[in-house]
Design goal:
The complex is a heterodimer of chains A (about 325) and B (about 525).
Chain A: H1 2-29, H2 34-39, H3 45-55, H4 61-73, H5 87-122, H6 127-141, H7 144-158, H8 174-208, H9 211-218, H10 223-253, H11 255-260, H12 266-276, H13 279-307
Chain B: H1 2-24, E1 31-36, H2 51-57, E2 65-67, E3 73-75, E4 78-84, E5 89-94, H3 108-121, H4 123-129, E6 132-139, E7 142-147, H5 154-159, H6 170-176, E8 190-196, E9 200-205, E10 229-234, H7 238-247, E11 252-256, H8 261-265, E12 270-285, H9 295-304, H10 307-315, E13 321-322, H11 341-344, H12 349-359, E14 365-371, H13 375-390, E15 394-400, H14 402-408, E16 417-423, H15 445-456, H16 460-477, E17 481-493, E18 496-497, E19 511-512
Parallel strand pairs in B: 1-10, 1-11, 14-15, 14-16
Antiparallel strand pairs in B: 2-3, 4-5, 5-7, 6-7, 8-9, 9-10, 11-17, 12-16, 12-17, 13-17, 18-19
Classes of the chains: A mainly alpha (about 325), B alpha+beta (about 525).
């Protein structure tokens, strides 16, 4: 087990190296440069050129790549061109909104998705099943930003229950913080819940056909005990995988929702960095997201152990 | 008895009139929240021509001059000036007792250091400084600028808000040199408090602000910081900016889609503002390299276009566009000219085809870079493309993001046309639309000679004559293709009072009624 863990952790290093290189190359291959953006619309080519030299952007790419590796080895992600501060600091600053948003979204997704999937499976092919799955199909198909904008219109503009946008830090109070996150988390969570419902339903259906379920029922166990205790526990593994992947995706991928709701999270950080070609930030965030991805994957794999004693890692 | 009735009546009048009067009397206090389109690339105004940097930092920094209602230069940090040596020497007296946000008094040492840095770094500064021989401090309150030849542009340049000649403390400049300043200190009515990227930029009233005593006039005169704080919030989604101002989360939202204008007019809590003028929508041909270097092809390009359909498609609401041939705006009085109006929107397909034949055009693709980040740029290009293809042009429309566009336009080998807008410039001689060293490289012997004359000329009448001639060349040589003037739509909540919508955004002299 320990060997397995060590092997998995060591495997992160080459992954990070590849990600670091690909991120650097892709970012620099893309057209556009930060100097033109800083200089503004009325700057002349000479002004832009001068700024490029000042920012050290005129160095040959291989040199810049080597520098980037060198800094990484010392754990330094470099400084943002626009934010006038280290990348790591900028990322840490954005972690709170993103983590809270992600956690809340997953919570909403699980609270809606798992019961819906279980009920659908239990009443397989019934009217309830079909309507729930139709809703799930709708949920998967609606883009989350559309849901977000509709919610802004209904709950923000018409009913005035929730603020239309913006983020209130946790330090300013839990209630205010929740209020600012509710709509974005819901827009993200609903879409994910549809996916979770579908996965839960199909794996529940598989499990419900197993012989031990039949045996349980034959012994006269209550249907609820059969479904919720014996079947669900075994059917939850694929759901857990989806939740894990969702978590990883949301950490770096709530870009659109963070933009729509004006939440200063990692998604906003990376999208504004891309639009302005803030190279160090793009590279740094991509690297950190890749790291989060691999770590979440590892955590999910380890969670399997706890949930299903049949699984063993060598 | 009659006296008593009169008294009661008087009291009644006073009391019923009081609320109205109270609302229109400026009131100090409150936090003004302004929803902006994004984040400034820098807070060092000497560094960038980005409009959003100017809009935010203009509250922090001030220059020696600014503009009055007619967009003519008037003193700001300067008390006044005298001109000697045949227009070659400007002796500028500074106002005394003006404090920086760090508590130190502004003196000529700060002004000289700032002007020198600006002349070395800023785009308009560099243009002006070609003519500047020396900037010296004669005494703590006097700055002398010596010119190589007389200039009609110097004061306009010093008063320019965009990439403007802000006066920083010398100590800040000594630390920064030509790198970005690390401290954002000026003499303005608001001082910088904090910048939390993607959250807000917070400014607070500068309690020791020394205002001018003359009445407010344009951007100048007495500036009063009524609100305690200004929060500039980056809200990149236009729908969210609008929703936020509707619900009262923001007091001001900039650049709302113009098609919302009619709906906004019906909303009692809001006041839509037409920002007039804002800029002109344009396409810039590459005069340095490629197919557009042919004058006949440029003329064919211009002849083929119908500006009305282009502008309507681009802007969407006729209240926000103006079909005007002027290089400068009607709001600029003397500088507005209608020379060349027949060439402005020709929509003459026959002429365009003939010119193309004469030019020997054989279907080389016109590489036109545009962007959807500014919706009107993309839409104007799209409609123009159809009109051009109807006369035989082959247009290769390349839609990229803004960061790519501003990079590629500096490379003459990769494009033939690019989309952009030219904002408001008070001084004709400093207008980007006419500069030879700006992307597009529209250089011609006569035009550049006239531009040099324009920069030198002090007499407004003679300046106007030069503008007429420049505008004629603009259409004859097709320096740029002007589609028309566009206006932006800002929205304010009714409780934001005393706020004027001008080409440049500012919140001093504005207050919150509740």
């Amino acid at each position: 087990m320990r060997v397995y863990l060590l092997r998995r952790l060591l495997a992160v290093i080459p992954v990070m190296l590849v990600v670091a290189t690909v991120a650097f190359v892709l970012v620099h291959l893309a057209p556009g440069d930060p100097a033109s953006v800083i200089a503004g619309p009325y700057a002349t080519a000479d002004d832009v050129g001068k700024l490029r030299r000042q920012l050290g952007l005129d160095e040959p790419l291989p040199m810049q790549l080597v520098r980037w590796y060198g800094r990484l080895l010392t754990g330094d992600l470099g400084d943002s061109i626009f934010l006038r501060r280290p990348v790591l600091e900028a990322v840490l600053d954005r972690l709170e909104p993103t983590l809270l948003l992600t956690a809340l979204a997953i919570l909403i997704a699980v609270i809606i998705g798992v019961p819906a999937g279980v009920v659908s499976a239990r009443y397989h092919n019934s009217g309830t099943d079909q309507s729930l799955m139709a809703l799930a199909l709708l949920g998967v198909s609606v883009p989350n930003f559309l849901l977000g904008l509709l919610m802004i219109l209904v709950f923000g503009v018409w009913l005035r229950w929730l603020p239309v946008a913006g983020y209130v830090p946790l330090a300013d109070g839990l209630w205010l913080n929740l209020r600012s996150l509710l709509m974005p988390a819901f827009s993200l969570g609903v879409v994910q819940s549809a996916l979770i419902a579908r996965i839960t339903r199909s794996s529940m259906l598989d499990v419900l056909r197993e012989q031990y379920i039949l045996a349980g029922r034959a012994r006269g166990l209550h249907e609820a005990v059969v479904v919720y205790k014996h079947a669900l526990k075994n059917a939850i593994i694929p759901t857990l995988t989806v939740v894990g992947i969702t978590f990883a995706i949301l950490i770096g991928g709530a870009v659109v929702i963070e933009t729509v709701f004006n939440i200063p999270g990692l998604g906003r950080l990376i999208i504004s960095a891309v639009l302005r070609r803030d190279y160090p930030v793009i590279q740094g965030v991509v690297l950190l997201i890749a790291l989060a991805y691999t770590m979440v994957n590892l955590a999910v794999d380890l969670a399997y152990l706890a949930l299903d004693p049949r699984i063993r890692y060598q | 008895m009659t006296n008593r009735i009169a008294l009661i009546a008087m009291i009644a009048v006073v009391f019923t009139a009081a609320p109205a009067a109270a609302q229109d009397t400026p009131r100090a206090g409150g936090i003004l929240k302004a929803a902006m389109i994004g984040e400034p690339p820098s807070l060092d105004i000497h560094w960038t021509t980005a409009v959003i940097t100017q809009q935010i930092t203009w509250h922090i920094y001030e220059g020696l001059y600014t503009y009055d209602t007619q967009f003519d230069p008037i003193p700001m940090l300067a008390e006044g000036h005298t001109i000697a040596d045949g227009g070659r020497r400007y002796t500028i007296a500074l106002r005394r007792g003006v404090k920086f946000h760090n508590g130190k008094e502004m003196t000529s040492a700060d002004a000289v250091a700032s002007l020198q840095r600006w002349g070395k770094m800023a785009t308009p500064g560099k243009a002006l400084w070609k003519n500047v021989e020396a900037v010296e401090a004669k005494d703590p309150y006097t700055v002398v600028i010596s010119l190589k030849e007389p200039s009609g542009s110097l004061l306009y340049g010093l008063g320019r808000p965009n990439n403007g000649a802000a006066i920083y403390p010398k100590s800040v400049i000594d630390v920064a040199g030509e790198n970005q300043v690390k401290e954002f200190i000026g003499t303005g009515p608001y001082r910088f408090v904090e910048h939390r990227p993607d959250r807000h930029i917070r400014l607070a009233r500068f309690k020791e602000y020394v205002a001018r005593t003359d009445a407010p006039d344009g951007y100048g005169g007495r500036r009063t910081a009524y609100v305690d704080e200004i929060l500039f919030l980056p809200v990149s989604d236009v729908a969210v900016r609008l929703a936020g101002v509707e619900t009262g989360e923001y007091h001001f939202a900039t650049q709302i889609k113009q098609d919302q204008y009619d709906r906004l007019k019906t909303m009692p809590a809001l006041e839509p503002r037409v920002v007039k003028p804002s800029g002109w929508a344009t396409a810039v041909p590459n005069h340095k390299q490629g197919v557009m270097t042919s004058k006949k092809i440029r003329q064919a390009f211009l002849a083929a276009l119908d500006m009305e359909s282009i502008m309507v498609a681009a802007v969407g609401n006729r209240d926000f566009l103006r079909l005007d041939p002027g290089l400068f705006y009607p709001e600029q009085g003397m500088w507005h000219s209608t020379v060349g109006k027949n060439a402005f929107s020709q929509n003459d397909k026959e002429k365009a085809r003939r010119l193309l034949r004469e030019a020997g055009y054989t279907g080389q693709p016109i590489r036109w870079i545009t962007t959807k980040e500014y919706d009107w740029m993309y839409k104007s290009a799209l409609v123009a493309k159809q009109q051009l293809e109807a006369v035989g042009f082959v247009v290769d429309l390349q839609v990229v993001d803004w960061a790519t566009l501003v990079q590629r336009r500096n490379k003459p080998e990769v494009f033939d046309i690019f989309s952009t807008g030219f904002g408001f410039t008070a001084d004709p001689a400093l207008a980007t639309s006419l500069q030879c060293n700006w992307p597009g490289w529209w250089c011609s012997e006569e035009k550049d000679r006239l531009m040099a004359d324009l920069a030198r000329e002090v007499d407004p009448k003679k300046r106007r004559a030069l503008i007429d001639r420049l505008q004629a060349i603009f259409y004859e040589d097709v320096g740029r293709i002007k589609f028309g003037d566009y206006f932006l739509l800002d929205v304010v909540r009714k409780e934001l009072r005393g706020f004027r919508s001008t080409p440049e955004l500012f919140f001093w002299n504005a207050w919150l009624a509740k």
